From TrEMBL:
This is Ribosomal RNA large subunit methyltransferase H. One of its GO terms (molecular function) is methyltransferase activity. Coiled coil: none annotated. The gene is rlmH. Specifically methylates the pseudouridine at position 1915 (m3Psi1915) in 23S rRNA. It catalyses: pseudouridine(1915) in 23S rRNA + S-adenosyl-L-methionine = N(3)-methylpseudouridine(1915) in 23S rRNA + S-adenosyl-L-homocysteine + H(+). S-adenosyl-L-methionine binds at residues 76, 108, 127-132. GO terms for biological process: methylation. It holds the Pfam family SPOUT_MTase.
C-alpha cells in the first residue's frame, strides 16, 4: 500500500518532527508512506469570505496537482465522518482488498480545504468536533494509520 499525506504548511516544531519520524519508521514495515508538504498561501490575518475562498482555492490547486486519478482520497475535515480506530482499520483493509493501493490523506491549511478538494475526495474523515493545529494532525493521523495496520494484523497495541 502506498499512502501519501498531502499537507499545507511547513512543520517547524522539533517535537512534532520527532514523533512523525518515529511513526514513519514504524509504518515502513507495513506500507510506503510519504509526506508531501505544500506551501501555505500567505494572507493577512483578517480576510473577507471571498479572500478566504481565494486562499483555499490556491492551496487546493496545489493539493490536487499531487493526486493521480487512481488515488483514493480521504480529506480530513471537521465536518467529515467520525470513526473509531477499528472502523478506520476496516476501511483501510477493504481498500487494500479491493485493489486501492494508493491512498492520499489530505490535511488543509488553517482555513480548511477548498470545495474542489472536497469534491475530489472519496471520503472525508473527522477526528473530533474540536479544531487541531494542522501540524499536530500529521502526528495524530500517522499514529492512527499505524494503529490501523496493527489492528488489521491482530498485533498488540495499547488500547
Amino acid at each position: 500500500m502506498n499512502i501519501s499525506i498531502i499537507t499545507i504548511g511547513k512543520l517547524k516544531e522539533k517535537y512534532l518532527k520527532q514523533g512523525i519520524e518515529e511513526y514513519l519508521k514504524r509504518l515502513s514495515i507495513y506500507a510506503k508512506v510519504e509526506i508531501i508538504e505544500l506551501p501555505d498561501e500567505k494572507a493577512p490575518e483578517n480576510l473577507s469570505d471571498l479572500e478566504m475562498d481565494q486562499v483555499k482555492q490556491k492551496e487546493g490547486e496545489r493539493i490536487l496537482s499531487k493526486i493521480s486519478d487512481d488515488t483514493h482520497v480521504i480529506a480530513l475535515a471537521i465536518e467529515g465522518k467520525m470513526k473509531s480506530s477499528e472502523e478506520l482499520a476496516r476501511d483501510l483493509d477493504q481498500l487494500a482488498t479491493y485493489g486501492k493501493s494508493k491512498i492520499a490523506f489530505i490535511i488543509g491549511g488553517s482555513l480548511g480545504l477548498s470545495q474542489d478538494v472536497m469534491k475530489r475526495a472519496n471520503a472525508s474523515l473527522s477526528f473530533s468536533k474540536m479544531t487541531f493545529p494542522h501540524q499536530l494532525m500529521r502526528l495524530i493521523l500517522l499514529e492512527q494509520v499505524y494503529r490501523a495496520f496493527r489492528i488489521n494484523r491482530n498485533e498488540p497495541y495499547h488500547k
